[in-house]
Design the sequence.
C-alpha cells in the first residue's frame, strides 16, 4: 500500500500521545462500564465506520464573489486521489472517494482504478453534472437539464447520466447521485407540473439503464442556483420522484438543502419509514447551503440525525445508506477540513451508539419528555474523543491527524510539485 | 331570508357609490376588451366565487400573552351565525360557515340547521378538536391525541372525530378537517416513526366511517403548539398520510403553516399533480402561523396560489377544493376583517383569471422568463376593484362593505345585546 | 434555613453516587492537568455561578391553543417561592427569583421578603407587565402601552413601571426589565417613527425615577404577540433606546427573540463592545420564541454565547450581566425543567472557561480558522458533568437533582396541598 | 445626444400604443380626481424619479455553480455604458450609472466621462472591491480586507477605497459605497470585537479623505460570502459604524441582505429617524441574497418601503437617498431586466404618492388598523401603469420598453459586434 505520509513520523507523533490516550480511554471505559456499556464493542463500531470524501472537496471552494485558492491544489483526479489517500491514511474513516463527471473523467478508467487501488481507495457514488455547460456541448443547461422544456436538452442530460453510470461500473461504484440545478428565478418562468413530470420521465429513463446492483440517489434542494423555485425542492418531491421511478431509486438528504428551521432528523425518519432513505451529504450551515464543515455549527443536530440512523439500524442491522462529506472549503486546507469533519461525523455516530435505547423507549412510551431528552443528552455530553483516537490509533491512523499532517509538510510539498493552474483564478461570478 | 343589515341603508350606500363604480367598471371593461377579455365573463366568475368563514373567526382572537376582547362578541353558535350572516349579506362571497366541535356543538342540530337556513347559510367542512382538553374528558391530550402512545387516548380522539362527522351529516356538511397539535418539545420525546404510524392508523379508522360523499382533509403545520417536532409537519407527511388512507382523504394547505421562505404555490401544484389537494385555509403571515388577514402581508403570493388553482381548473373545470378563511382577528372587528379578507382572496382569484395563459404557456415553453413573469404581472397590476364591487352590487351586497357595516351600527347593537361573558377574560397563557 | 427536601434523603442519594463522581472527577482533573488547567479553580467558578429563575416559570406554560396544567401547581407567589426553594436546594445554582407584577404583587412586601429569606432566596430583576389588561384597569393595552398613541395610556403604563420599581426596592431587587408587546398586525397600523419616539420618551420617564443603584433592562423581540411589526424589534432598536435613555439603561438579550439564522453570539459581542449588554433571558428554540428549555435544541450555540461572555469577563472581571431562565414548561414538571436548564447553562459556562484563550487568540491573529474552531471544540467536547456534579455536591445540593426530586415526592405532596385553581383552565386562545 | 435605439422605431412603437394609453390615463385621472388627486402632479413626480443602474448589472450574472453567458455581453466599461444608455433611452428612469472598481477602471477618466456625456449619463455612487483578489495584488483578502488582523492588508484596502474616491471625483460621482465580504466561516475564526473595531478604524481613515460634498455609504449583509458571521451583519452594526465615523457616513439598505422574515420597511424608518439612511440597493429575494429583479417576488414589500420614504420626504422634502438597482440577471437579458425593474421601483414610488396620508395618520392615531391598512391597499391596488407609460412617453422613452427593445434588434447587433470573451467562461466555483 502506498502511503504519502511517512509512517515513522506518524509513529513518533502517536507515541507522544499514546499514554494520555490510554489513560483517557481507560477512564472512559470505566465510566461506561458503570452503565453496562462495553467500550470495546463501541470501539469496534467506531473503527468500522466510514464516510466517502468528494473528489472536488480537496480543492479550495469559493462563492459567486470570489475563490481564494490555497497552495498546492490538486490539478487533476490523480492528484485529488493523492490528497484523498492522505485523508484516509491519517483519519482511517474515509476509504472511498466520490467522483464528479466530467470534472474527474479519466482517459483510462482502468488506470484510474489501479491508481486508487495502490492507496486502498474505493469509488463511492458517482455524481453527474448537468448544472454547468461544458465546452463543445451541443445544448445549454441555462434553462434546465433533465426538466428542460426541450426534448433535445433532456435527452442530452439523460445520456450524460447514463454515461456516468457506465464509467462508474468500470470503477467499481455502485450508485449514481443526481442533483440538478433546474428551477426558476421568476414566478411564471416554469410550469411547475410540467417541469416535475419531465423530471420524473427523465430519471425513469436513466433508471431503466441502471445495473441491478446499483442505486440511484435523488438529491433535493430548496434553493440555489435557482432562486424562486427548484424542481425537486424538498423531501416530499424527492420521495414522489423516487417512488414513481423504482425500488432502487432513493432519496438523498443533504443537511444544508432545507428551509430555515426545518427538522431534518424527522425527514430522515420519514424517508426511512417509507423505504426511501438512500444516503447523505454531510455538511453544516447557519443560513442556507453554506457547505460548512460537518458539525461546525450545530453538532447536536448531527447527533440527532445519527440518533435516528442508529434507531433504524437497530431494527434493520443491514441497513447501510451512502454517507459522503459535501463541503466547500473556502478558508481552510481541504485535507484538514475533511479529516476533522470525518471525525465529527464519526463522533456523532459513536455518541448515538451510547444512547440507552431501552430507557429512551420507556420514557417515550410513558410520556416523560424530561427523562427522554436527558437520556439523549447523557450520551451526547460524554466525551468520546478517546474512542475516536483509539480507533484511529489501532487502525494505524493518527491520534491527532491535523498535527501529524502539519508536521509532515505534505502541503508544502504539494505547493512545490503543483504550480498554480492559471485557469483557476480567483475571480468570482456576480 | 332574514337580513340583519337594513336593506334601505344598504341601498342608500350603494346608490352613493354607483355612478363612480359604473364609470370605473366601464373603463376597465374597455381596457380588457383591448386584450380580448370580456369583463362580463369575469364578473360572472367573480360572482360565483365563494369562501367559507370559520365560526370561531367572528370572535376576537388572541395570543398566549393576552386576548383583548372586542365589543359585542358572539357568545354561542347562534350569535356567531348572526355575525356570519352579516358578512355574507354585505360581501356576498361567504355563503358557508365552518364549525369547530365541541365549541359549536348544538343541543339540537336540526334547530341549528334551520337557524342557518333563514340566513341562506350552509355548513362547510367540520373541524374536530383534539388539541385541547374538555371538561369531564376522560383522557388528556397533553401528550398527543390521534398519535398518543396510549391506545385509550387514541381511541378517544378517534371517537370524537367520528362523532363530529355524524353531527356534520345532520348539518349538511361534506367534509371533516383534521388538525392535531400532536408533536414534541424536546429531542427524544417522541419516536418519530411510531407517532406517524399511529397517526395513519388513527385516521384510517376515522376514514372507515366516513360517508361516501365526504372528504377528509388533513392539515399539516411545521410548528406550534409543539415546538421541536410536529407529527404531520409538512406537505410530504400530509401526502403520505392521505395516500395511505384512501381516495377521499386529501391534504389541506394552510398558508401560514410552512417553514420560512417555502414556495407555497409549488406545494399547491405538487399536491394537485398527485391528486391530493383538498382545500385551503387562507390567511397571511410574516413570521410563523401569524394568522393575519389574507393578503395583508404578501398579496402577490396569494395571487400566485390562485394562478396555480386557475391553471389546474383549466385542465379540470370541475375541480373545486375547499376554501376557508382561517385568521385570528386580534386587533380588528372580526366581521370587518372577514369581509375584507374574503374580498382579498376574491381579488387574487379574479386577477388569476386575467392571466393570458396562452401567452404564458408560450413563454414558458420557449424559456422567456422575462415575458413569462411580465405576463403574470400584467394581470396582477390591473385594478380589479370595479369587478369585485360590481359582483357585490349585482348580488345585493355592498359596494363598500365596511363603510356600510359601520354605518349600520350592528356592532353597537351587539355590544348592548351581548354583555361580556365573564369567562372569556383577557388573561393569556405564558 | 428552611429546606423542603429532606436532607437525609438528599444525603442518601448523594452517597450512592459519590464514588462514581469522585472517580470521574479525578480522571477529568488528570486530563485537564495535562493541559495545565487546574480543575479546582474551575470548580470554584462553577460553584459561584448563579442564574435567576422566573416566578412564573414554576407554573405550567401553554400556547394560544391550550394549556395542560400539571399537578400541584403553585397558586400564589408564596407557593411559587416554595418551588423555587426546591430548585435552589437541589441545583445550588438559582439563589434568586425574578418577579412579574402584577401577577406576583404581595399584599405585604416585607412579609414576602421574609418568606424568601427563610429559603435564602433573593429577588432578581423585577418585570413589569403592560402586555395584558388587568381587571379594573382604566385604559386598555390592546393597541399599545408605553408606545400608545394616547398620552393617557402611556402615562398609565409608565406609572405601572414606576410602581414596580418601588415594590422592587422593598424586596431588594436592583433592576427593572421592560418588555412590551407593542407593535402592529397590519402594514400601516402604526407610524414606525412615532411609536419608537413614544417608546423612548416613556422609558426616559421611568428611568428618571430609577434608584441610583438600579439598572433598567430593555428586552427586544422580533415578533409575537404583534405579527407585522414590533416597536423594539431587534438589538439595533434596543441599543438606540438604551443609548438615548441613560448609562444604566441597558439591553437584554432573550435567546428566542431573533429572526431565523441570526448570529446571537455576535449580538452579545456588539452590545458589550458598546457598553449596553445588561442581561439575558435564557431558553432555546427551533422556530420562533418557542421558550424551550435552555440548551435543549442547540447546546453549542449556548456555549458560543458564554464563549463571548467569558471573553468579555477576561477583559473586565467585574462585568456581571443579569442571567435569568425564561422558559415555558408546557410538557414537563417545571421544577425539573428549571433544575436541568440551570445546569445546562452552567455547563456552557464551565466549558467556556476551559477554552485555551491564548491559543485561540493566536489562531485568530494568524488566520488559522481550522485550529481556532478546533480550540473551541476541544473545550466543548469535554465532559464537564463531573464538575457540575461536584459543585452541587460540595454546596449541599444534589448530585442528580431530578432523581432526588422525584424520590422526594415533593410534587405529589403539592398535588394534595394545592387543589386545582378553577380559574386556571386549559382552554386556549385562538 | 447619441441614441442607440432608432428614434423612428421608438416613435412608431409609441404611436401604436398611444391611443390606448391616453384612454387609460384619462380614466385613471378621472378616478383619482374623485379622490381629489391631481394625476398631473403625480405624473410630474413620476417623470422626476430616477434610479441608478450598476455597470456590472448589464452583464449576465451567475452563481457559484455556473454562469450561463448571454449573447453580446459588454466586454468593457464603454460597452457597458452603451447598454446603460439603451436602458435610459427607453425607460427614462435611469440617468446614472454606478461603477465598480477595479472592474470598470478606465485608462483615462476624462475620456470615460465624455463617453458617458454623449449619452447624457452621469456617474452615481462608486463601488470599491476588496472582496476579490486582483492580479498582482500584494496582499490577499482571503481572510478579510478592511477588518483583517494584519495592518498591511487593512492599509491596502484603505488605499484602494481612497483611490476609488479620487477616480470618482474625476467622474463627477458624489458617493462611495463600501461593501466588504469580511467575516468568518467557523465559530472562533474571528474575534468579533476586534474585527468590528478594525472595520470602524479603517472606514474612519477613508472618511478622513472624503471630499466635503461626498457621502460614504456602508452596506451590511447577514451572510455570503462569509457563512458563520459577517463583520457588518445588520443595520445595528451599520448604524454604529456610521455613527462613529461621521455625519456624511450613512447606512445603505440592500433589500436582499437581511435575515428571513425581517421587517425591512421598519429598518428604513429607524435609520431615517436617526439620520443615517443614505441609500438603497434594490432587488428582490425569496431565500437569501437572491438578487432577483426588484418587485418580482414581493411587490407589496417594495411599496411599503416607498411608503416609508414618501412619509420621510413629506417631512423633509429635500431628502434624497441614493437609489440603485443591484440585481444578478442570470436568466434574462440584463437590459430587459433593468428596464423592467426600474419601472417596478417607479411603480412602487408612484403608488406610495397616492396614499391618503391624512386619512392614514387619522387611522393610526385612533387605532383603526382595518382602515389604516385599507388606506395603504387603496393606493396599492390602483393600476398606475398609465402614469408610468405616460411618464416615459412624455420624456421620449418607450411606452413599452421591452417590446421596443426587442423590435430594435440591439441585442442581435451586440452579438455580432461583441464576440464572446473566452476568459468569461461558464464554469462555476463550488
Sequence:
Amino acid at each position: 500500500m502506498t502511503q504519502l505520509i511517512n509512517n515513522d513520523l506518524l509513529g513518533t507523533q502517536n507515541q507522544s500521545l499514546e499514554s494520555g490516550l490510554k489513560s483517557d480511554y481507560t477512564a472512559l471505559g470505566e465510566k461506561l462500564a458503570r452503565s453496562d456499556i462495553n467500550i470495546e464493542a463501541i470501539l469496534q463500531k467506531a473503527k468500522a465506520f466510514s464516510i466517502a470524501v468528494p473528489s472536488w472537496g480537496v480543492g479550495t471552494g469559493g462563492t459567486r464573489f470570489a475563490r481564494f485558492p490555497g497552495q498546492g491544489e490538486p490539478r487533476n483526479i490523480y492528484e485529488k486521489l493523492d490528497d484523498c489517500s492522505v485523508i484516509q491514511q491519517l483519519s482511517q474513516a474515509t476509504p472511498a472517494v466520490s467522483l464528479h463527471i466530467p470534472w474527474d473523467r479519466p482517459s483510462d478508467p482502468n488506470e484510474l482504478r489501479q491508481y486508487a487501488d495502490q492507496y486502498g481507495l474505493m469509488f463511492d457514488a458517482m455524481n453527474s453534472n448537468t448544472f454547468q455547460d461544458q465546452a463543445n456541448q451541443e445544448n445549454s443547461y441555462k434553462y434546465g437539464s433533465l426538466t428542460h422544456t426541450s426534448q433535445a436538452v433532456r435527452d442530452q442530460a439523460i445520456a450524460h447520466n447514463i454515461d456516468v453510470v457506465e464509467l462508474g461500473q468500470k470503477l467499481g461504484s455502485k450508485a449514481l447521485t443526481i442533483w440538478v440545478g433546474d428551477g426558476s428565478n421568476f414566478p411564471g418562468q416554469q410550469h411547475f407540473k410540467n417541469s416535475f413530470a419531465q423530471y420524473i420521465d427523465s430519471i425513469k429513463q436513466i433508471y431503466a439503464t441502471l445495473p441491478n446492483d446499483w442505486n440511484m440517489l435523488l438529491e433535493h434542494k430548496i434553493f440555489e442556483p435557482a432562486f424562486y423555485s427548484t424542481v425537486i425542492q424538498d423531501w416530499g418531491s424527492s420521495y414522489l420522484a423516487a417512488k414513481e421511478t423504482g425500488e432502487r431509486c432513493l432519496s438523498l438528504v443533504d443537511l444544508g438543502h432545507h428551509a430555515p428551521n426545518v427538522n431534518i432528523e424527522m425527514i430522515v425518519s420519514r424517508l426511512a419509514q417509507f423505504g426511501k432513505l438512500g444516503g447523505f451529504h454531510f455538511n453544516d450551515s447557519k443560513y442556507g447551503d453554506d457547505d460548512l464543515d460537518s458539525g461546525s455549527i450545530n453538532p447536536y443536530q448531527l447527533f440527532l440525525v445519527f440518533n435516528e440512523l442508529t434507531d433504524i439500524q437497530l431494527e434493520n442491522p443491514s441497513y447501510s445508506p451512502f454517507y459522503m462529506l459535501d463541503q466547500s472549503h473556502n478558508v481552510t486546507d481541504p485535507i484538514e477540513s475533511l479529516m476533522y469533519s470525518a471525525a465529527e461525523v464519526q463522533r456523532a455516530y459513536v455518541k448515538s451508539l451510547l444512547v440507552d435505547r431501552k430507557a429512551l423507549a420507556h420514557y417515550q412510551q410513558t410520556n416523560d419528555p424530561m427523562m427522554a431528552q436527558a437520556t439523549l443528552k447523557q450520551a451526547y455530553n460524554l466525551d468520546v474523543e478517546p474512542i475516536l483516537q483509539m480507533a484511529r490509533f489501532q487502525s494505524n491512523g493518527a491520534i491527532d491527524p491535523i498535527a501529524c499532517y502539519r508536521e509532515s509538510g505534505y502541503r508544502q510539498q504539494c505547493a512545490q510539485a503543483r504550480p498554480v493552474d492559471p485557469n483557476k483564478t480567483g475571480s468570482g461570478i456576480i
